[in-house]
Amino acid sequence: MREFNIKIISTQGTFMEDKIEEIKLKDLDGKFSILSNHEARVVFIVPCRGEVVRKSSRETLFLSFGILNVDENGDVLITCEACEWKKDIDINRSKKSKERALNRIDKNKDGIDIQRAEKALMRALARIESVS
């Protein structure tokens, strides 16, 4: 397979900058892949388990809400809230985040931002899936 340039930037700075063969992510319509020479496009990414494919390896990562941009040269830029390699995900923290979010949604009291709790739940579930 042919390679393309990718750069992923999170709120913490540059997460990765490399040449890869494929990236697998998720948008509002479901899972998708980007390969070399992909047409130019912009995609809204939802929290998901992703996969980076290189010539000699595959790595799993977590990506939070973000924007993926494929430019006219086929290079990819992803900007996202958070991004972590599978090996760096704290599964216990993710499970606690899931429980907190479920409790907030379940209680549904005045003053609780349900949309915020639902987004937190999406991120926690995607992190948990990324380590499975």
From TrEMBL:
Keywords of the record: ATP synthesis, Cell membrane, CF(1), Hydrogen ion transport, Ion transport, Membrane, Transport
Transmembrane stretches, start-end: none
Keyword Cell membrane: yes
Gene3D superfamilies per the UniProt record, alphabetical: ATP synthase delta/epsilon subunit, C-terminal domain, F0F1 ATP synthase delta/epsilon subunit, N-terminal
GO molecular function: ATP binding; proton-transporting ATP synthase activity, rotational mechanism
Ranges where the ATP synthase epsilon subunit C-terminal domain occurs: 87-129
Any one Pfam family match given in the protein's UniProt record, by short name: ATP-synt_DE
Domain of life: Bacteria
Similarity comment text for this entry: Belongs to the ATPase epsilon chain family.
Subunit organization: F-type ATPases have 2 components, CF(1) - the catalytic core - and CF(0) - the membrane proton channel. CF(1) has five subunits: alpha(3), beta(3), gamma(1), delta(1), epsilon(1). CF(0) has three main subunits: a, b and c.
Name recorded for this polypeptide: ATP synthase epsilon chain
Naturally occurring in which organism (per UniProt): Oceanirhabdus seepicola
Source organism phylogeny: Bacteria, Bacillati, Bacillota, Clostridia, Eubacteriales
Gene (UniProt): atpC
